[in-house]
Amino acid sequence: MFNDVCDMIFRLYLYADMTKMIHYTTEKMHAHTLCDDVRDAINGFADSLAEQYFGYHGKPSFSDMTLEHEIQYTDDLGKLCKTVADMTDDLRKKLENEPKLQNLVSLIDDFKGEMEKDMFLATFDKVSNYKGE
To answer: How far apart are CA 49 and CA 45, in angstroms?
Structure first.
């Protein structure tokens, strides 16, 4: 699971950067602001996840990490938020059985709530055509 967490952290950073691509292509101020908020939330979550997980399991070596990741490219901010929330939910399921990592389960729950809120906000001003479940 250690390498899976390393991979997830760097995929999160790629998704955060993709929000900046969406930011540059939107017309409305609401969309620009929301893209920056989503980017900040993803970056903050990735950093907190890394520090807490590696604080418990030990720091990774440089070879544990890679920049080569497949991600879903999209210009739809709502879909991006959903993809990121689903990705972190998969990790949550693995962590919920480890009592010493319950702080990470809470971190993921808070982040997923943030992504769901942002997914809803992205439906305004046509930043997204995605409709949540």
So the answer is: 6
Structure token digits, residue 61:
């070596």
Q: Which residues of 39-76 are buried (b: 16+ CB within 10 A; e: fewer)?
A: bebbbebbebbbeebbeeeeebeeeeeeeeeebeebeb
Prediction pTM value? 0.86
Q: Which two tokens stand for residue 102?
A: 């319950």
Residue located via tokens 């990470």: 104
Q: Are the C-beta atoms of residues 111 and 41 closer than 8 Å to each other? A: yes
* pLDDT 10s digits, 31-59: 889 999 999 999 999 999 999 988 887 88
43 neighbors 114 (Cβ within 8 angstroms): no
